[in-house]
Predict the 3D structure of the following.
Amino acid sequence: MTDPANDKSRDIALGMDRPITRRDFLNGIAISATAAASGPLFAAPQGPSSGLPAAAQDAYGYYPPLLNGMRGSHPGSFENAHALRDGHTWPAATDTSEEYDLIVVGGGISGLSAAHFYRAHAGSASRILILDNHDDFGGHAKRNEFNLDGHLNLLNGGTLEIDSPRPYGPVAAGLLKTLGLDVPALAKSTQHLKFYDARGLQSGAFFDRETFGADKLVVGVGTVPFEQLLADAPLSERARKDIAQIETAKIDYMPGVSSDEKKQRLSRMSYEAFLRDVAHADPAVLKFYSARTKGEWGVGTDAVSALDCWALEMPGFQGMKLKKGAIARMGFTPAGYADTGGSYRLHFPDGNATIARLLVQNLIPRAIPGGSADIVTARVNYAQLDRSQTPVRLRLNSIVTRARNIGDSPSSGQVEVTYLREGQPYTVRGRGAVLACYNVMIPYLCPELPPAQKEALHKLVKTPLVYTSVALRNWQAFDKLKLHRVYAPGSYHTYFHLNAHVNVGAYRSTSSPHDPMLVHMVRTPCQPGLSEHDQNRAGRAELLTTSFETFERNIRDQLGRTLNAGGFDPARDITAITVNRWPHGYAPEYNPLFDPELPEKDRPHVVGRAQFGRITIANSDAGGGAYTDSAINQGHRAVMELLHG
Ligand SMILES: Cc1cc2nc3c(=O)[nH]c(=O)nc-3n(C[C@H](O)[C@H](O)[C@H](O)COP(=O)(O)OP(=O)(O)OC[C@H]3O[C@@H](n4cnc5c(N)ncnc54)[C@H](O)[C@@H]3O)c2cc1C
């Protein structure tokens, strides 16, 4: 990690002065509704979409997937939510006089699915308004698009792939089918790792000098025997032996104890404690494994149970004779994978943004012409998303600050929703509303909810994380080092890898090392030693106060140090950076280390999602699982409550 104290010559060597694409600019002009309304470039081609002032999304050239710089929770998307939390009030709202059958708050997969299910059950003429605070739809399922030397290159800005600890159930699987996806067939035809395998590229691990005493890249994790792989790593002989033992030896660390009892004990200790107190590993070994859980859970091994790590097939348990299935007394299987093998897995070039785009195509066909086969390369016409002539409207850059049942009784027939656009409040009315937004925000939108429900919603703290997309001039350094992914437990981003090689529809991935390439990097800000949610809170605060410049400097430094033996020069080789910052990332999941053991009906996500008059609650938060199938299932449940509750 670089010292942010500005070392000028180091900055120049890293290329901090190079003119790369790093800012939230579109066609050279900062994107905002003000800009949209002012110049000919942004003149809305078909006039405003409603009686409201011209909106950025109606402007010619509006295409947020192409933006670089700080994305995810981008500047302008969240400040008013924090102001609401802090007690700010706004002047009286303008009544738009718009009336809908359904208003959906949140244009992520859950909200888009809710709109889909409502139309499927109430009829395709149903009038629906979807409001989202971001400049693009999809929620976490965002698309990063780059034009590199005239070639379309895609990456997921958030939600990576179809993948869940349990098989998709009939609702979620049925929706994917309706959208035209044959997931098992596509999963077979897009096995992306084969491409790098065939070139002889492997996984590596990077030991950084700040954590391990010296910088060292080792290549061949999972293919080269550990003793050999780690021979030159900056580790003591004892630490090297311990890692080899944890990875390969079949040791029962709890002989004579039943499988259920072992699982019970493992559910109450962290993986770090398991390595330290049960496997008696060297302290450097704990550092080496510390980040192994960050991709899946957003926190390190100090805050994830050993049992969850066993369920995800992390090393150390091979000799422990643990049986599949739920622990009898606790009645749950920690991560699901151990029991079910998980769902099918499928990665589109832009991750699950493809699912969000398919949903929008299904809801507003004119916004995305073509069929589902062309969806990956289709260009969205944002100006078609919010037209008064179409039954479904998707309004971006619109943060909801209030949702209330109209009338004395919560069961009365209408809901009024207030949202802000360009700082101005507007109201719309509906026969019902689905709040598919971050559940933790709902007490501020609906202050009249029962206290116990608000208390439960306040507990739904999400996990912050960052997915960074970096464009490179070429990937010759990776090819030379025979490397396609790196685990870097002490570095700023704890993983990075070459973009997945997926050819689907007309989309073609880069195949020559001489061509430009995208690299996907993952950072999970957290603070070891605290409870999981306190780590999440600390990480969120850190994320919101970290400048793009700090990210850029650390990215350049990390890639430069890791890849320099392959001839990589960060000043010369980096051409664009997009930091997808998600301060409110993964939905909270039950963590046996910190959460009380409660029956399902008493868990915060269940108490928090209770219907309130004509307002129902969706989002993956309401399902207690940070997965797309959970987002879809909750969208469905919330709609069924409105229609039949
Ligand atoms: C980096 C990352 C990677 C992930 N990878 C995977 C993966 O590989 N597989 C998987 O299954 N899941 C993954 N997930 C989990 C992911 O959250 C879900 O799969 C799913 O996309 C969640 O959809 P959602 O609609 O429930 O929530 P979101 O995607 O969060 O959508 C909610 C939307 O509501 C908006 N909103 C919030 N408050 C307001 C308001 N007041 N007014 C208006 N709009 C509001 C939010 O900004 C957001 O746009 C990942 C999540 C993250 C953050």
